[in-house]
From TrEMBL:
Alphabetically ordered keywords of this record: Signal
A Pfam family this chain is assigned to: Rhodanese
Domain of life: Bacteria
Keyword Phosphoprotein among UniProt keywords: no
UniProt-recorded name of the protein: Rhodanese-like domain-containing protein
Signal peptide range: 1-24
InterPro entries documented for this protein: Rhodanese-like_dom, Rhodanese-like_dom_sf
Domain Rhodanese: 41-92
Entry-linked PROSITE patterns: RHODANESE_3 (PS50206)
Amino acid sequence: MTHRAVLLILTLALVFGLAATATAADTVPRMDKDTLKSRLGDPNLTIFDVRSNSDWKGSEYKLPGARHLDPNAVDAAIGSLDPEAEYVLYCA
């Protein structure tokens, strides 16, 4: 992964399991880019890229192993995720 790609990453670490309601920004755990970089490939971490479909498809910069999650479908996806697992949402 290029240094440029790492610099483009804005990460938010979320643990789903809470109700699908808005959470105050100061209560959402954050993960800095260096921590995320060190955790790439961690089987206990699922990374979701929440860019729009067109941005996702048109980008050459994607984190290894990241899965695309339509930003308009996040609320619907929460119910199908393991509440004990760890997830990162990012938009580059």
